[in-house]
Amino acid sequence: xxxxxxxxxxxxxxxxxxxxxxxxxxxxxxxxxxxxxxxxxxxxxxxxxxxxxxxxxxxxxxxxxxxxxxxxxxxxxxxxxxxxxxxxxxxxxxxxxxxxxxxxxxxxxxxxxxxxxxxxxxxxxxxxxxxxxxxxxxxxxxxxxxxxxxxxxxxxxxxx
Length: 160
Fold this sequence. Notes:
globular, 14 strands, 2 domains
């Protein structure tokens, strides 16, 4: 039981209450931060993956809008969350698939499996692509579920 009194002009009960509140807030923060974690899209190794580029890195007149995770060509890429996918396809020749949107995430520098069509459902943790010759996966996270191809069609704010 805490005694009410003063020590150096501060109420003992008040300082104990602050300590208890601080400990409770730290516990809540740690539990909440664990909820925000998600798996990497690269899982075919038991070591940490090198990050080649980070968010906001300056590149030839623009800021890099995501992170690049090092992975050799043909490494499997897994969906962080399950959702309908939307391929990001160039509209001018040569027509190529630039990347894919799944849930809150965009993936670039991948070769998408033939069985995955535009607007197919891709399950969480499913292998949906392999890395291309760029030897990394470019990953972007949006503030909302991506419901169309391309960056501007969703009016999303990119978080990473």
